[in-house]
Amino acid sequence: MLGIFKEKLVNAPKELNSPASLNSSNNKPKLSHEILHNFMSNNSSNAFCMNFGHDALLAYSPLNQPSIHQRLFSGVDNIYCVFLGSLHNLSMLNKQYGLSKGTNEAMFIIEAYRTLRDRGPYPADQVLKELEGSFGFVIYDNKDGTVFVASGSNGQIGLYWGIAADGSVVVSENLELIKASCVKSFAPFPTGCMFHSEHGLLSFEHPTKKMKAMPRIDSEGVMCGANFNVDSQSRNPMMPRVGSEANWATWG
């Protein structure tokens, strides 16, 4: 899967962008349309892309071979989700949210996001902690122009993010695509974390702690983006437990 979001939509951590990308003599970061072209060229004929004006796009290709981890795409009420992995407690979650038994993981994530966006009974970290299994997902809310990304705690679904030549944020599970697209300005998306386009990166495992950027050095000794870890010595203000200020759309 592939998500590309223009800089005006996404307030990505500045540490993700490495000056070394522009100084590379052998390779340069690619523009958004070049990244999309590479994705579509290297995936099956049933891959597709959805563009949301000039600001966002999601591209998706179904799995071509059996896997214990699913790759799903869904769109409901102008909210779109690409989901990787599987939730062991999906049946219980569907029952809890009043959804039908046939609701898959991507559809459930959209419904959970929409419920929190509109009614906000619980903060996002509490909802994500209830997800049992391996997962990584990207949501684009076309109504609000909001991007939401999360990666499960067990690390079995690896997501990567980086900065394209035009400053757009690129998200994919394909490490080689991210490397070729963003050169030195990329990093693994931290496990047990969520990212909101307006309010930044937060650990849903440790929501009271801040995230700390640690420079990544590649095999050539060049700074290559940053790893983001929980800063155990820090403390975030407690997130409110009720009201719309606590939901996925407006936390912080």
TrEMBL record:
Coiled coil: none annotated. Pfam families: DUF3700 (PF12481). InterPro entries: DUF3700, Ntn_hydrolases_N, TSJT1-like. SUPFAM superfamilies: N-terminal nucleophile aminohydrolases (Ntn hydrolases) (SSF56235). It comes from the Eukaryota. Residues 2-230 form the DUF3700 domain. Signal peptide: none annotated. SMART domains: DUF3700 (SM01172). This is Stem-specific protein TSJT1.
